Amino acid sequence: MLSHFRFALFRLCLTPAELVVLPFFKGSVFRGALGSALKKVACVFRDRECEGCQLEENCVYRKIFETPKPADDSYFRGMVKIPHPFVLEPPQEEKQAYEPDDNITFHLILIGHAMKHWPFFVYAFSELGQSGIGKHIESKRGRCKLNTVESLPSLNAKKGEILYTHDSQEISGGYMPVGLTEVLRGRPEQLNEITLEFLTPTRIQEYGDLQQKLTFATLLKRLLQRISMLSYFHCGKRLDIDYRTLIEQAEREIEVASESLEWFALRRYSRRQEQSVSLGGFLGNITFEGNLQDYLPFIYLGEYLHVGKNTAFGLGKYRVFAD
Predict the structure, then answer these.
(1) Which of 180, 204, 224 corresponds to the end of one domain?
(2) DSSP-assigned letters across all residues of 118-132
(3) How far apart are alpha carbons 164 and 173 in whole angstroms?
C-alpha cells in the first residue's frame, strides 16, 4: 500500500558568526528565509512570477515552493494548492539569542521527488546563512555559516551520514531514503492505547473550522488526506485505500481516554499578505484507546510528515508514546 512512499530526513547545523536573534517559534522565519534563498540559488529569472515562466516545468524552486497542480488532473478535484514536498522542523527550544559558536540545529524532511533536489537545499541554507537570519540588529540580520548537513535514518538517530561540512565546502555521499519499513521498525504492530504529544501548534480544520479539541476520526482524516496527497503529487502513485470505511471504523472503535490539549496563540507577519496572520494551534497530550492496529502505519508516518495546516513551517509535529 505504501511501499512506494519515500522521504529523506536531514539534520542541519548553523553556527552564528555574530549575534542571531530568533523568535520563540522559529519555523516561519526559517521557512521564509529558505524560500528567498532557494529562489536565489535555483531561479534564472529571480524577479519574475513563476506562473508563465518558460522554465517553470524544470525549475526546482517552482516544484518545491509553488508546486503547480496538473492542468488535466481530476484527482483531488477542487483543490487550489498542492502540499509542499518538504517539512522544516525548527529548533524546539526557548532560546532566542544565539552567540557566535552556538549551534542552531534543525531538521529538514524532503518527500518523494523532492529528495533528488537535496543539494539545492544545501546551497540554499548556505546562502541563507551568509545573507543573515532573524531580527535586524544595527540594520542587518545575523549571519551564520552552514556547519554540517547529515542524512539520518530516523528521527531518533543520534548519528547520520555526513553529506556536507563548512570546512570542506563539498557535497558528497548520498542521502538515506526512509520508507514505511524503516518507520515501523521496532514499533509494536498491535496496540489498544496510544498517546500523542503535540509539540508544535497544530491547526486541524473540520468543515472549515479550526478545532481546539480532537477526535481520533478527525486526526485520521487529516493524516489520510495529507499522506494521500503527498503520495499522488510527489511520489507518483495514488493510494489504494477505502477511506470512508476506515474512518467510519475508527469512529466506532477508537475513543479518547484522556486529553490535556491547550490552545497556543501564535502569529507571524506575512510579507505576501502584508499583515499579521494566525499560526495558533493546540499543544499537549491526548490518549486514544481501542483496536489501533489498522491505523498505526498512518500515525507513525505522521510523526515525520506532521499533520494539519502549515506543516512546512514545522506546525503539527507530534510524538507517539506507546507501551
Answers:
(1) 180
(2) HHHHHHHHHHHHHH-
(3) 9
One domain for residues 161 and 213? no
Instruction: Give me the DSSP letters along 182-239.
Output: HHHTTS-S--SEEEEEEEEEE--EETTEE-SS--HHHHHHHHHHHHHHHHHHHSS---
Bridge partners, 140 (sequence order): 137
- 173 shares a domain with 202: no
- Which of 180, 212, 242 is the last residue before a domain boundary? 180
- Which residues 6+ apart lie within 8 Å of 234 measured at CB? 67, 83, 85, 111, 112, 113, 114
pLDDT average, residue stretch 51-70:
79
Evaluate if residue 77 carries a pLDDT over 70: no
Q: What gap in Å lies between CA 7 and CA 5, rounded to an integer? A: 7
Report in angstroms the alpha-carbon separations of 171 from 9, 111, 161, 178: 16, 20, 12, 20
pLDDT above 70 coverage of the chain, percent: 93
Q: Is the domain of 156 the same as that of 289?
A: no
Count CA atoms within 13 Å of residue 162 on its CB side. 11
CB 200 within 8 A of CB 279: no
Whole-number pLDDT of residue 291: 95
Q: Phi first, then psi: what are they for 295, rounded to 5°? A: -105, -10
- CA neighbor of 289 nearest in space, from 199, 220, 195: 195
pLDDT in tens, 6-35: 999 999 999 999 999 999 899 988 988 898
Quote the domain boundaries for residue 235. 187-321
**pLDDT higher than threshold 80 for residue 276:** no
The answer to the question of residue 2 being in a domain is no
Amino acid 71: pLDDT? 67
Whether 264 maps to a domain, the answer reads yes
- Is residue 23 located within the same domain as residue 124? yes
> Into how many domains does the chain fold?
2
Is the distance from CB of 298 to CB of 164 less than 8 angstroms?
no
3-class SS at 29?
Answer: helix
Residues constituting the chain:
323
